[in-house]
Structures are given as C-alpha cells and as structure tokens.
Amino acid sequence: MEKREFFGSRITVIFAMAGSAIGLGNIWRFPFIVGEHGGAAFVLIYIMATLLISLPVFLAEVTVGRRARTSSYGAMSSLAPGKSLWKFAGVLSIAIPLIIDSYYSVIGGWSLDFLLKSISLEFVRTSPENVSSIFGTFITSTWSPIIMHLVFLGACAFIVANGIKAGIEKFSKFTIPVLFVLIVLMIVYSVTLPGASEGVRYLLKPDFSEINARSFAYAVGQSFYSLSLGMGAIITYGSYVHKDENLMAAAGGTAVSDLMFAILAGLAIMPAVFAAGIEPGAGPGLIFQSVPFVFSSMSASHPAIGAAVSIIFFLTIVVAAMTSCISLLEVGVSFLKDRYGVGRVKGCIILFLLCGAAGVLCSLSFGPLKDITLWGMNLFDIFDWLSSNILLLLMALLTVIFTGFVLKKEDVWDELTNGGTKKVNDKLFGFVYFLIKWVTPVAIVVIFITNFIF
Ligand code: PFF
C-alpha cells in the first residue's frame, strides 16, 4: 500500500481548499443573488451565515477527514464502525461528487470553448445583437460541447493523476494567486466603463427591505456550495492535512479567500453588464451571453482591449472551474485507492470514463436529448438540482450530527486545538463546538424546509 500523501504547509492547504471553493458558484451565482437580495445587506447576512454556519460545517468536515485519515467513503464508518447510517453517508459522499463533476465539467467545457473563441477574436468580431446567440447555438449542437467537456475533464484528471503534491498542490499554488490578479484586472477595466457605477450600486447598496427568511436560506445554501461543503471534498482534503497544521486557521483562510473572490467577481462583472445596458441574470446566461455582449459592444471603440479582457475573463473561469473539478475528482480517486487499492492513475482513468459518460448525457440534454425531462428539468438541471438542493444538504447534516453526537468531544477538541497547543483555538472551541452540535443541524433542517415549502 502506498503511503498517504500530505499537503506541504498551511498555505498550500489553503490554496488547495480555496481552489475547491472558488469556482463558478462565486462567478455566476453570487453576484446575481447579492443584487437580487438587497445588495450590501445580503453581503452582511452572507458573511454571518459563512461564519456561524458554513465555517462550523467546514470544521466538522476537516475534523472528520483528518481524524479518519481515509477517503470520505470510509471516514465516518471507520470512526464509528458497524453503523449503517455512516456507511450510507460514505456512499453519499462518493455519489455527490460524481454527479456534480459530471455536469460541472460540461460547463468547464463551455468555458474552454469560450476561451478559444476569445482568443480567435470571435466576440470582438461579432456584432452585439448576434453575440448572445453564439452560446445557444453552441450548447445545442452535438459534438463540440462533448469534445470540450472531455478535454476539460481530461485536463483535470491529468492534474489529479500527478498526485497531491506534484499535481493538486502545485497547480493551485500557482493558479489561485493568478486568479486574484486576473479578477482585479477585470475590475479595473469594468469599473472605468461609462455607466459602471449603476452596477456597483446594484451590488453594494444596502437594502434591508429585501431581507426575509428566504434570504437567510439563500445565503446559507450559496455559502455551502461555494465552500464545497457536503461534497466529500473537504473531508478528503482534510485527510491530507498534517497533524500539526492549524485547522481553524486553514478553514478561516479558505472562507476569507472564497468570500473575497465572490465579491471581486461581482465587482468585475456587474459594472460591465450595467455599462452595456443589459439586465443581469444568474447562471450560464450571465457569463456566456451577457458578458460576451459587453465585450462585443465595447470593442467597437477599443477592439484590442475588448479582446484582451475577454481572454482574461474566460481564462479566469476555466481555471476556477478546474481547481473545483479537481477537488471532486480527488474524492473519487481517494475512495478507489483506500477501498479497492486502485492506483492513482488508474483511478483517474476510471473517473474520467464515468464522469465523462454521464457528462456526455448532460451535454446532449441541451440538444438531441432535450425532450427527456422530469418535472420540466433536463438531465443537466436534474443533476444540479438534486446535488445542490438535496444531497449536499443531507451530507452536511450527517457530517455535523456525526461530529457533534458520535465523535467524542475530546477527539473533536484534539483535532481543532491540536491537543490544546493552539491557545486561541482552545478559547474558541466551546463556541465552535456549540455551533457544530446545535446550531448547524437546526439551520440545515430549516433551510431544507424553507427550500421546499416556501
Ligand atoms: N465551490 C464550488 C463553486 O463555488 O463553484 C463548488 C464546486 C462545484 C466544487 C464543483 C467542486 C466542483 F467540482
């Protein structure tokens, strides 16, 4: 049996975890949700939700991962042998990343295609009226999106195949700082456009009248997705963290980077969208239609700048999506390795084939398979809805219940304070443990009910 690999240092743990966290969730959902739900008022709620609910869930996940030192599949059942509920949690933690990676890598493929289109100056050359139809034509076609999906997934699998240190850690150590630089460049461009202030106001003007129970549910749901919680990724990454690393500091660093990136992404996108005089929307339309419209309309006067910014923008998206996709592939690789002794490279090939095939079906669900629907959703939407709104919450709930009620309090303390050696953590522990044990399970159940009933 190969020895378990570890991340090199706290900063590389944060880079890898931030890599998992920073993704499409930050770029296409956060800015829109903020604008729709009261601007800065929602940002405040979001920060509170992150600190009081998502961070404790994050800590529960890294605690379980590091304590068990195994894949997310066996983590809980190895700490509490014989209980089928924890075996079920293990199965869930493998199913969720497989489902998410299948559709997420399809979007990764779209982003890659749009990066190539930016490089070949397609958005600069197409008139604003025609530019938004490029996306519809592309995703409803059969072969191009499939090829791009497989190339994207293959590139992610290649990085994972290189291992924790030489693959994931090296890639995120380089790309996370680059992502921040790229998004700041975008902001500089975006906020200097005429009419951009409207977009800044949309994001940041506090409007407390928009805040209601649903805003809380949205804030928590979004911050779970954004921090990659309930997907097995943080449990798995936790299992690679050295015993003497400070888990609370790593979790805090990850949450702060993720939050900062989400706000920066909003400041990069919304001012440009408003400057171009279009309505912002969430989801693929925002980045694949509205933003290319911006590039096309701006490049009438400055084609070179339009081209450069479009390349920067889609490069950011491709890289952000890759670091997220990688973290979920690692969940599967670590499962195949720990459970069946399958080597890393072979594991990557198996996952590539599985997610590749499921992703092909998701991709086709916009074209030839678009008539196969359930409750009005195509296969792609079903994958997204099932994983983000149901399975992920269930997995997070099981993890916090496990940490609060099954693990011994001393063991949780031992992980979160490194045996009492981290004095600040020791002081915070009582509060954090209370949040994990009592606040997060109640919050997750309330969100679940709010999502379904209201
Ligand atoms: N935290 C990611 C995001 O905000 O986009 C969520 C995610 C999705 C992580 C897909 C990993 C992944 F493969």
Order of helices and strands: HHHHHHHHHHHHHHHHHHHH
Distance between the termini: 51 Å
Radius of gyration: 21 Å
Count of strand segments? 0
* Helix run count: 20
Low-confidence stretches: none
Named CATH topology:
Amino acid/polyamine transporter I
Structural class: mainly alpha
Estimate what percentage of residues fall within beta strands: under 5%
The major beta sheet can be summarized as: none
Helix content: over 70%
Estimate the global geometry from the Cα principal axes: globular
Q: Average pLDDT value?
A: 93
Return the CATH architecture.
Answer: Up-down Bundle
Q: Into how many domains do the coordinates divide?
A: 1
For CATH, the homologous superfamily is named as Amino acid/polyamine transporter I
The level 1 CATH classification is: Mainly Alpha
Q: Which ligands are bound? A: 4-fluoro-L-phenylalanine
Architecture overview:
It is a single chain. This protein is mostly helical and 454 residues long. The chain has one domain (10-453): Amino acid/polyamine transporter I (Up-down Bundle). Helices cover 79% and strands 0% of the residues. The protein contains 20 helices and no strands. Helix 10 (164-191) packs antiparallel against helix 16 (303-340), helix 16 (303-340) packs across helix 17 (344-364) and helix 18 packs across helix 20. The chain binds 4-fluoro-L-phenylalanine (PFF). Residues 20-21, 23-26, 100-101, 104, 225-226, 228, 324-325, 327-328 line the site of 4-fluoro-L-phenylalanine.
